[in-house]
Amino acid sequence: MTPATIRAAVVTVSDRSARGEREDRTGPELRRILAAAGIEVVESVVVSDDVLPLTDALRRLGDAVDVVLTTGGTGIGPRDVTPDVTRKLLVKELPGFGEAMRRASLTSTPRAILSRATAGVIGRALVVNLPGSPGGAVECLGAVLPAIPHAVHLIAGAVADCRDDTAGAAMPKTAKGREGKK
């Protein structure tokens, strides 16, 4: 499996965008970045900040694609439910994704510590919660994008030995972590 064979979906979680009151600017930006990384975006949806529509979208997409990026609803406001819904559906949580995104965002804003974004496995897909703002979503995706192909390979059972997974071959050394250590 190469990045070109990874299929992704983008779910924008926004009351105003779902009602047609505000253009979704973040979803298109995420689709552009994924396409530039060679990941095929096969679906993009907008749902309101409500538990049921988001639950339905994550369940359906978790069985249909390899990666689901959500954008929006990761804060502490009354209608921010994305991490709560995601956690209820996860079969495996990957807290390192949220940690990496918050660490990257702290270089731009001290408010990054308010993010509850997480990631994990739903169905057969890697699901990653990103902030709703275009800048925040792009910054956070940049922090975790190098790990996505390897995560997808692991979820699919396509990796016998992590040292042999070619998904990480194109990653910069700083993104690979402890290169050469056993």
Overall description:
This protein is of the alpha/beta class. It has one domain (3-142): MoaB/Mog-like domain (Molybdenum Cofactor Biosythetic Enzyme, Chain A). The protein is built from eight helices and six strands. It has helices at 15-18, 26-36, 51-62, 82-89, 95-105, 134-144, 148-155, 173-176, and strands at 7-13, 40-47, 67-71, 92-93, 119-122, 125-130. Helix 3 (51-62) crosses helix 4 and helix 5 (95-105) crosses helix 6. It starts with 6 loop residues before the first strand and ends in a 6-residue tail after the last helix. Mean pLDDT is 90; it is low at 169-182.
**Which CATH class applies here?**
Alpha Beta
CATH homologous group name: MoaB/Mog-like domain
What count of structural domains?
A: 1
Report the portion of residues in β strands.
15-25%
